Structure formats: structure tokens, C-alpha cells
Amino acid sequence: MVKMTLTKTDLAILDKFDFDVPPVGVKFLVKRPERVERLNERMAFCEMLRRAQEGNVFFVDKDSHACEAGLYVLGQADAPEPYISGEFGAGLKIFEEPRSASRLYQYIPKIGRGVVHSVAFSPLDKLAFDPDVLVILANTSQTEILLRAMSYRTGKMWSSKCSAAIGCAWIYVYPYVTGELNYTVTGLGHGMRRRKLFPEGHQLVSIPFDLLPSMLQSLRDMPWVLPAYEPDGAEFVRGLLVKLGMAPV
User: 223: burial class by Cβ within 10 Å (0-12, 13-18, 19+)?
Assistant: First the structure.
């Protein structure tokens, strides 16, 4: 596995959030990693995130998956025909008809065949590799700071993408293949809601590797609580308007 270029000092700013569960680094690998234990049971791709949040470092391969969705979005298997046709999604009552359910497979992000052979997971405090995606379970106040760190220098739009099913694609794969931060609201996606993996009403914030260094720097530089959010926020805003000649003295 490639040696870390991010240091513990770089990542230490995240400790300031005091997240309920640790952020998890995810690494997509061509080969089996060395000195990392293989997960000794089969589970869904979304469940693996929960396992890593509990403090476990491990990797998974094709035989580790208990849900076809994970294999599909990783490019390790084709989806069974009843999935692609929409019969399965309609049968679950997620969609009215197969024609609606089949649309899912027209826009779900997935990695190309042969690109990924295994995936490594690690909680932040045990991270020994540069993550391809860092996944953070956050409350709304924490998410606001993270999103602001993303747009602080870039001015990028905040955007959340998800779907009624195959939520793992938006947590892991979308940020990896696009280089865009994504966040999803817990309690919405079918599989994760059915498995009761995360507390409802939080956000899973997925940060791709190419945004992570700049976001960590922004977190060190920017105010975490904006002046307008402080008790004297209205006074601050008025003072700024006066300074800019937009309000009378």
C-alpha cells in the first residue's frame, strides 16, 4: 500500500470536531494490501463503514460482499438481470414500476471493470494510508463547517447527490470518480435505513483525496463560527454594511 503523505499533524484538526464516531479512510486497491487483515465475514458495502467506525482496520475483496450492490458499483460484477430490469426495485415497493426502478442503473456511479480488486478501511486514529475517500458521520453543525471548508477558497457549490437505493455508490464511488465532495442524509437510503446502520438526521460527508489537503488547510485558517452567527452578529453585519457604504452611519 502507498505510504501516507498526509501526516497526523495534517489530520489533527479533525479532532477538534469531537465526532461521535471516527472518520473512516477508504482506499481502492488494485492488489491485496500488506499488513492489513481481511474482514473475516461477509457483509454489505454500507455495513463495512459501520465496522470501521467501531475501530477496526481491514480490507475486503469480492468474496467479502453480502450485497450485490457493492460488487456492482465497484465494477467487480454485473448486476443480476432483475435488478437492471427494475423488477427487484419495484418488488421492494421502492418504485412504482420496473420502468422507474430501472432508471437507477442509468445514473448510478460505478467504477470500471478491473480497476478495483480490494478495498481497505481504517478509522482516522489508525490510518496508515492516504485515503481515496474520507467518510465522516457528522451532525448538521459539523457538516456546515466541513462544507464551508470546501468552498472557503474555491467558492464551489454545495451539492448532495443520492438515490432511493444503492446509497453506497454516493458515499464511496461518486466522490472517488468525480473528485467532488458529496453528503447524504442518514435515514433516507433503503439499504442503510433497513439495516439501521446510522442515527437518523445526520450527514455522511464523503471527501475525495484531491480535496482533502485544501479542506484541512481551510479548517486551520477559516473561522469555524462566522461573525454573523455570534450573539452580536446583527451588529457585525450592520457595521460591515456601513463600512461598504451600503447603509447610513
Answer: exposed
Crossing angle of helices 140-151 and 212-221, rounded to 10°: 100
pLDDT tens-digit series, residues 61-104 = 999 999 999 999 999 999 999 999 999 999 999 999 999 999 99
Q: What would the 3-class secondary structure string for the chain be?
A: CCCCCCCHHHHHHHHHHCCCCCCEEEEEECCCCCCCCECCCCECHHHHHHHHHCCCCEEEEHHHECCHHHHHHCCCCCCCHHHHHCHHHHHCCCCCCHHHHCCHHHHCCCCCCCCCCEEEEEEHHHCCCCCCEEEEEECHHHHHHHHHHHHCCCCCCCCCCCCCCCCHHHHHHHHHHHCCCEEEECCCCHHHHHHCCCCCCCEEEEEECCCHHHHHHHHHHCCCCCHHHCCCHHHHHHHHHHHCCCCCC
C-alpha to C-alpha distance for 53 and 189, rounded to whole angstroms: 19
For residue 59, list its beta bridge partners.
Answer: 38, 120
The rounded distance, in Å, linking the Cα atoms of 162 and 216 is 25
**Would the pTM count as exceeding 0.85?**
yes
- Other C-beta atoms lying within 10 Å of the C-beta of residue 156: 13
Q: Which residues contact 239 (CB under 8 A, 6 or more apart)?
A: none
